[in-house]
Amino acid sequence: MKLNKNLPTPLYHQVKDYLNEKIVNGDWEPGYQLPSEKELAIQFNVSTITVKRAIHDLVSKGILYRQRGRGTFVRKKDDKDIFQLVTLRNENNDSTSHPHKTLSFREEKASEKVSKALNLSPEEKVYKIHRLKLEEKDVIGIEYTYIPSMLFPGLTQLSIDNDLIYNVFINKYGMLLGKAKIFFSTIISSEYESKLMKIPMGEQLFVLERYTYTNDQKAVEYSKFIIRHDKSRYFIEINL
Question: pLDDT tens digits, residue range 108-166?
């Protein structure tokens, strides 16, 4: 492949796009070993430094991985049920540790958007919980959760650090949960998300917004999840 050196797009970026396209199109399947950096440099008629930078970016995104002394390979993406990613309840009700890290937990006046989402009056307060979703110490998601204070008096960070939020709703407060509605969209990563997830700025991210209701349709929780999708392939399974 010949690169277009007249384009404003950097050469390493063109190399990266080409390599990524081979993977996305299925030409290079998981486990495929890439040609050496020297061979790729000859193929693209660029320096090995340019190739190294392109490969480094794809390794950082979890698309490729290196094995010392062997070479560079296409990483297999794990299939994950997106429901398991955003649910906050486990069926066996245990209180084992869960893969997240709480950045902040505080009570504050609800913003206009949160008030509308939870059907609150302008003066009502919410617990605002800001957490990171972790997987093997990597940050794969950023979570913002809002819970009406008046419905869950005495809720503490310790409560949610030791158990899942839905379990706390049910077991501690006797809440009868009815349903959750989830909306899907995408955003481009800002400097803040890029720093937390260690990804380049401008990466596309999934956004899931979850609204949780009791059996009598009272809104008890609103959450926004910002999720990277380069490490896994997500699915929804429907029983027919």
Answer: 999 999 999 999 998 899 999 999 988 777 898 999 999 999 999 999 999 888 778 88
Same-fold call for 11-76 versus 79-235: no
Query: In the numeric block, which tokens belong to residue 178?
Result: 């009815």
- pLDDT tens across 21-42, in order? 888 888 998 889 999 999 999 9
What is the domain partition of the chain in residue ranges? 11-76, 79-235
- Return the CATH fold of 79-235: Chorismate lyase (3.40.1410)
Closest C-alpha to 229, from 157, 165, 152, 135: 135
Q: Which CATH class is domain 11-76?
A: mainly alpha
In the prediction, which pLDDT does 89 show? Answer: 56
Rounded Cα–Cα distance for residues 101 and 227 (Å): 15
Q: Which two tokens stand for residue 79?
A: 């299939």
The phi and psi torsions of 169 (rounded to 5 degrees) equal -55, -45
d(C-alpha 19, C-alpha 41), whole Å = 12
